[in-house]
Amino acid sequence: MAEIRAVRWDDNALVLIDQTELPATETYVSCADVDHVVDAIVRLVVRGAPALGAVGGYGVAVALLQAERENWDTARRDSEIDRIRNARPTAVNLAWGVDRVRPFVADGVAAVLAEANRIAEEDEAANRELSRRGADWILANTDQRPLRVLTHCNTGSLATTAWGTALGIIRELNVRGEVEQVFADETRPLLQGSRLTSWELTHDQIPHVIQSDGAAASTILRGLVDVAIIGADRIARNGDTANKIGSVSVALACHAAGIPFVVAAPSSTVDLATASGDDIEIELRDGAEVIEFAGVRVAPDGAQGFNPAFDVTPARYISAIVTEQGVVEPAETPTVDELVAKEI
Ligand code: MRU
How far is the CA of 301 from the centre of ligand 1 (A)? Predict the structure, then answer.
């Protein structure tokens, strides 16, 4: 699905495939003002850490064009840019994308757009490189052929600017003829796994089944999985990794079963300013997403939902963190400082 572009710039607007509507319909949303950009981020029209990085960059261009149209002063312009930066707290890529283009604001929209385009191009290149490195590592650290792979949430073309991270590794393994089957966790409550990952795997004709999140630990402990591969929203300096809620349960099951648990992300997701997982803000979403199913309330009147969107997997349960720069093994070596020190 390399041709699907979840995020692009067209006709002076940020254009997004509406991921809330997939797989039923393939519709596109055009964001020409900051309200629409923020709304798209909050409602998960666009989601996935690397995709949010590109949205951060293009979002600043949207803000600059609106500032020109509506004669904003500098303070208003900057506060609107901050609104985009802070629309979701956990994926570091969103703030990273905004911060990366900010130095170009004084040079105007064309300069901001050029940098946003560079973010998008670099993300695709990073994903393809980390996929090769991740596939190599997995083939060197597993025995079963072909592989039975478990993944959680959606980390493919839809979650990035192209190709994918964890799903990019699965694609690479599949190209090499090494995938027997993928277990795609459905990913409650918003079903990124059953709606989006399955859509991408179906498109690429990669054999897969969708399982409930609650089935994952049992599937792993029954010996039906050879490796779990997930993405990341923020990797702290010590290797602790925030990702979609349910990821830590997968990691604990892999640890108990003695199979590799692999985290895949571009280096833009590594946040050296955050010391450990304890310092990562976990987005708490509306409880209604948990107590409703397909918009219909299923819990009794008065029941409240608890809806953390992410969890943190401690580094000691992560067999490998794969970026485009290389692979570190946090369960063996305690920090991603090593990744920086080695400049791999
Ligand atoms: O709430 P979401 O759908 O934005 O959560 C996405 C995830 O947790 C992904 O696994 C992560 O962003 C990596 S995407 C390559």
Answer: 31
